[in-house]
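Below is a concrete protein record.
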Amino acid sequence: MEHLQAHVEKLFYKYKKSSQIEELKWEVLSNLEARVADLVADGMELEEAMRVAIEQLPSADQLVGEKRKVYAAVFMQELVQRVLLYTLVAWVLTMPLRIWGMGILLNHSLLALCLLEGAVFAALLGINRKTGKRKAVELSLRSAFTLRKTAWLLWGLYMAVSVAYTTALHFGSDIWFAREISLSGPYQFATVAVEYVLPLVSIIVPLLLHVVPDVMMQCEAREED
């Protein structure tokens, strides 16, 4: 696959190095490798598969450009599938938190979300099987990268504020008066630990927005389709 990496580097040689270009190169290479794997799985020789995948790749100007045509229903299906996976993982990981009231509520809410997302995914899967790739919409790849970066920055800020608030709530007076921080027992320790852990579930949001550029390129409308 070094040939593919070399081609991607050559594709973007005229663009100034930036975090967005580096992210885009990584996304393009990942999709290129996935396309080659699909073609090989269909019975094509590796060398031929790489040639075909490279020929189907848009120009660098198109890749860096503002607008990308993607199949709307397939795009939504992929996003719902990702968020369903993340929610299922969060549901499993929050099972031990059911020792505390908010932990029980969160775990049950995640289960309800999993069922809802599963129903939506099944509906989209049925629609795509019947209608196929028909309606294409234009989305901004640059905006997707910006949204991804903003989501991680906001999530980091939210987590910092959450940790500071929980610390001030439980240990503020001890810290202020320089007293030793102590917990009365295992239950209080578990309760405080749950309050620190619960906000981590919100990572589902930046994780979902992180994959949007990748999903956009996977679902791009090509002329041969």
Summary: The beta strands are 67-71, 136-140.
